[in-house]
Design goal:
Blueprint (H helix, E strand, L loop, with lengths): L2 E2 L12 H13 L17 E6 L4 H15 L7 E7 L8 E3 L4 E4 L2 E4 L2 H11 L3 E2 L14 H8 L4 E6 L4 H15 L4 E6 L4 E3 L1 H16 L3 H11 L6 H13 L4 E9 H5 L5 E10 L1
Parallel strand pairs: 1-5, 2-9, 3-8, 3-9, 4-7
Antiparallel strand pairs: 2-12, 4-8, 5-6, 10-12, 11-12
Helix pairs in contact: 1-2, 3-5, 5-8, 6-7, 7-8
Length: about 280
Amino acid sequence: MVTRRPAVAGSFYPSDPAELRRLIADCYRHAVGPGRLPPSEDESHGIVACVCPHAGYIYSGPVAAHSYLHVSSLRRPDLVVIVGPNHYGVGSGISSYREGEWETPLGKVPVDAAAAKKIVDLTGIVDYDPVSHKMEHSLEVQLPFLQEIYGRFSMLPISISFQEIETAKELGRGIADLLRNREAILIASSDLTHYETADSAREKDLALLKAVEQMDLEAFYATLQRKNVTACGYGAIGTVIEACRRLGFVRADVLKYASSGDTAGDRSSVVGYPSARFVR
């Protein structure tokens, strides 16, 4: 059994389990957070899909908590699919994990080997490549939030370096085929504008999120270019938009937008953080 060790425990989030649990709870209760802990008052069935940021918890955790309060409306998922960017550009351009477990301070999360094989077969563009995942944080940081909600669950990690629209369409089609008629969670892991003033980031990011709300993939990519939005996981968002369109979702709702200026205080150079849910 191959075990992926955590790459950013002790930096992006605490390595001590008790401290990590406290910080996750604090994210929900934070002034920028949703103000209460899971589970959601709603109860969902089928697919629950969202956009969620992936920075250090002290920066983006309160925004991520909005996404996870929504996620908790699905009481017993049989699969969690997380799509995120490959920040380091190492390994395969689009990669999953053949089998094994991902470890965090809260325990181990098994990879669904059957789902991994199916997404490889369905798309023809996904490879098995553990090297792509070894250092990457965009998927890893989602796991402790999920573990606090569900305890044990199975996952399908997908890391992408190729983020152009055609890849998003092809990968989104494959994910939709994989998830149809399942009880599953689908997460697009992305931060938005990087290292601009809070006002500049907000203007650009809200324009981009308008295209997300409309689930307009072409407008989403056009806004990225026109506004020069430096979203690191835009391909992950595009992939999930395409998958959700094929799965019968009709719109997205922005649950929260904030930046590191709202959580860390420095508004002169921020990173934007989105939380959004997809709605049937």
